[in-house]
Amino acid sequence: MSTTTAAAATTEAAPAALSAKGLRVAYGDVEVVRGVDLVVRPGERVGVVGESGCGKSTVALALMGLLAAGGSVTGGVVSVSGTRVDYRDEKALDRMRGSQLSLVFQDPLTSLDPVKSIGAQIAEALRRHSPRTSRAAVRARCAELLTAVGVPEPERRLKQYPHEFSGGMRQRALIAIAVANDPAVLIADEPTTALDVTTQAQVVDLLDSLVDRLGVAVVLVTHDIGLVSEFCDRVLVMYAGRVVEEVPSTALFGGAAHPYTRALLESLPVPGRPRGEDLAWIPGAPPPLAALPPGCSFAPRCTWAQPECAAGTPPRVVVPGAPGRGAHEVHAAECRRALEVVTSGRPADRQEEPRG
Amino acid sequence: MSATSTTTSTTTRPGAAALRRGGGALLGVLATLLLASVVSFVVLRAVPGDPARLIVGPLATPDVLAGVRTQLGLDDPLWLQYLRYVRDFATGQWGYSYSNGADVTAVMAARLPATLELALWAFLFAVVGALVVATVASFRGGAVAAAAKVVSLIGLGTPQFWVALVLILVLGSGGLGVLPGPSGRLTSFLEPPPHVTGLYTVDGLLAGQPIVFSDALAHLALPAISLAIIPGAFLTRLLTANQLDVARAPFVTVVRSKGVSRWAAHRRHVLHNALLPSVSSAGLVLASLITGSVLVESVFNWPGIGQVLVQGIQRQDFAVVQAFVLLSAVLYVAANTVADLAVALIDPRLRVSGGSR
Predict the structure, then answer these.
(1) Looking at the partner chain, which of A69, A90, A113 has a beta carbon nearest the beta carbon of B269?
(2) I need a labelling partner for B280 at 20 to 30 A (CA). Which of A23, A316, B9, B341 fits?
(3) Closest residue to B347, CB basis, from A115, A120, A123
(4) How far apart are CA B25 and CA B44, in angstroms?
């Protein structure tokens, strides 16, 4: 799988749980996702990271076919379990949503209908895809699901309403809804952002155990690169609507090939850092998507940038992997200096002011 | 909708909480009624004119005039008159009309059903119309929503009596003649149905007289529509705004992510959430329909309390006007309280919770 887009499907034996090739999304005239490739194998944990506004949540919603009004998929091919998704066929989309592809949303406090019981909201997902199930069977399955996501006393909890649940419990209920029909892929969009740190860890553990128990693949969309490196097998780093680096998480720390990934990692707070030393940060802000700079869109903020970076689209450079790494565990970055970035520790001109 | 509707909290004492809330509501009701009674009492006494003079006529001697004043209690201190007025209202003795001596309680009792029936049908038209228009507008959006907005704005600004006249001229006896014009509640050759509720449509159905029912409904149609237009437009705006608001909530996206179609998600979740805050407004709309039908009643010659009120004001008939004002206040407060209780019953967030989050 090098620069061509069709290679992945042929190298995989089983069809990918989810495959998006050259996905493009536009809001009006502004293209916010500019050709994203994302392949998720069954039972795989894939992370998508990036700053706010880089298009990662848009990718999640676009895959579900649930973009806000004004947004539309303008290009690309998406397949779920080998079947191509037609985003104009609402009926087919409704059948796919929840049964093959499901979503866990950012804010558990606003993601549940406040006037319906938790049980009714889980049951809705079940009934939608198996309408002939008996009432008792649905009830039993709801309780089973709540137990599976770690909510105690499921029988009592099913009758309660969202306001009677804590934030962490609501996120568990939402995960129960998402896995109710054994989907192939669960897209989790910032599932822990609104939760406190302890609850975050519990929710991540829960997702982890669901991958092991149910074999569901998880796409974890987050700005938290630390979380992604712990939870995921592979990480996609997004910047200004493109995947700028695709890296196995074992190679993430120490082996990042894109200056942006490296900068994200360096800006993580590390325990034991000397007092008074400023945390590393990335100067500037992501470019407005309506007016992207020519060439590499990260170049204006990049300490590695050379004059030619502003000239043409950066090439996709494949980083030679460690021996024994699987074919799918490609490590590639869209940067003409990717190989230099991997081998060198810090860029020589790191102290200089960024260009721009 | 789920069958699990009985929610009882095991950790809190819902009884105590409900009692506290009910007590607070009762205090509010009493305060409102007190204020309304004071205002109506003071305003009526403040306007110029002497009811005793109206009763005895311009030729009566001062002695007779003074006698009547004493008899009516108009010489007593104001606070005493006020207390007597409150006592009489509470006990259902609303006095006698100064102008024609009729028992006000009896007049009101005889006239209220006509007004109630008109108001209830107008309410039905307003609510159903608003629900349909608002739901379609908020679901379809775009040009449909814009058109609904324009129509509801026009509806809000249209004078009732003008609509009433136009309806009579176009559909009623003056025009197409498909519906009866301003000719009361029933065609003259029909007997009113046996009195049960006083509402001819309901009584007609109860008595098994479909002809009475349909005739009463035909007579109701035009006045009820005239009366329904303004509150209907108001409810349309409210329901549209609420639904558009709810439709943007993240939980709707979650519902869609289960595979629920956009229409089913709208119907089950958006509509349900949007209706809850509208219930209390609907209560006030109903109260305003009952007490605000004066103009329409005049145009359609409708034998309701509105006409009695107009005559009462013209003749400075304290007893009639006071009774009407207080009755209106009671109706408003009752409708408001019932609506609040209904919301508390159907909104799970208000249902239990005695101190929980």
Answers:
(1) A113
(2) B9
(3) A115
(4) 29
User: Contact at 8 Å (CB) between A70 and A28?
Assistant: yes
Exposed, middle or buried: residue A278 (CB in 10 Å: 0-12, 13-18, 19+)? exposed
CA distance A170 to A162: 7
CATH domain B113-316 topology: MetI-like fold (1.10.3720)
Contact A161 B349 (CB under 8 A): yes
| Contact (CB<8Å) B259/A125 | yes
Residue B56 and residue B68 in contact, taking contact as beta carbons nearer than 8 Å: yes
Q: ipTM higher than 0.90?
A: no
CATH of domain A5-239: 3.40.50.300
Q: Which residues of B touch A111 (CB under 8 A)?
A: 250-251, 253-254
Please tell me the distance in Å from A2's CA to the nearest CA on chain B.
Answer: 33
The domain segmentation of chain A, as residue ranges, is 5-239, 242-343
Task: List chain B residues with CB under 8 Å of A125.
Answer: 258-259
Task: Split chain B (357 residues) into runs of 10 and give each run's mean pLDDT.
Answer: 40 60 80 85 77 77 86 83 84 78 85 91 95 94 90 90 86 76 79 83 86 88 92 94 93 94 94 90 89 86 86 79 83 86 83 47
Pure H helices in chain A:
7-11, 56-64, 90-96, 118-129, 135-148, 154-158, 167-179, 197-214, 225-231, 252-255, 259-266, 338-343
Structure tokens at A38: 């994302």
Where do the structural domains in chain B lie, given as residue ranges? 113-316
**Residues 6 or more apart in contact with residue A131 via CB below 8 angstroms:** none
Beta pairing, strands A234-239 & A45-49: parallel
B interface mutation test: which of A113, A179, A181, A221 has the most B CBs within 10 A? A113
* Residue numbers in B near A105 (CB within 8 A): 250, 253-254, 257
What tokens appear for B204 in the block?
A: 């007609």
Element (H, E) at B265: helix B262-265
pTM of the shown model: 0.81
